[in-house]
Design brief:
With 132 residues, this protein is an alpha+beta fold. The chain is built from three helices and five strands; from the N terminus they run H-H-E-E-E-H-E-E. It has a single domain, classed as 3-Layer(aba) Sandwich (Trna Endonuclease, Chain: A, domain 1), CATH 3.40.1350.10. 33% of the residues lie in helices and 39% in strands.
Length: 132
């Protein structure tokens, strides 16, 4: 029984890759001068991986990590549906955090691909506009 429970509660390899990707994206953005405000901000409508300040701009960051680009680049997974969820969740964040209401807002995507032990990071600033 203990073996079964242990397997059930072990994080999947995909989730581990995602968590590692988010941590690496955070390090990458910090090196670029971003200040991280929140991580994994959740509402019933979805989650935003990172929320940061880039100067006076509030940036909502979606992080996508893949073990290879065999099925496309990670950032290509941020489709219309995902962008709509991120937009909706960002509105909740702004409503709950009125101190940011006068900031400019931007949506970035960080795509990470691991291939042959090397990590490729692609940061797309202003990746999409607010979708109504």
């Amino acid at each position: 029984m203990k073996k079964i429970l242990k397997r059930l509660f072990t994080p999947s390899a995909k989730r581990c890759l995602g968590v590692a990707g988010e941590k690496e994206a955070e390090r990458f953005l910090k090196k670029k001068g971003y200040r991280i405000i929140d991580r994994n901000y959740r509402t019933r409508h979805g989650e935003i991986d990172l929320i940061a300040l880039d100067g006076d701009t509030l940036v909502f960051v979606e992080v996508k990590t893949r073990g290879s680009d065999n099925f496309g680049l990670p950032q290509e997974a941020v489709d219309r549906r995902k962008r709509a969820h991120i937009t909706k969740v960002s509105k909740y964040f702004l409503a709950e955090n009125p101190s940011f209401k006068d900031h400019n807002v931007r949506f970035d995507v960080v795509g990470l691909t691991v291939e042959g032990g090397a990590l490729r990071v692609e940061h797309i600033s202003n990746a999409f506009e607010v979708e109504e």
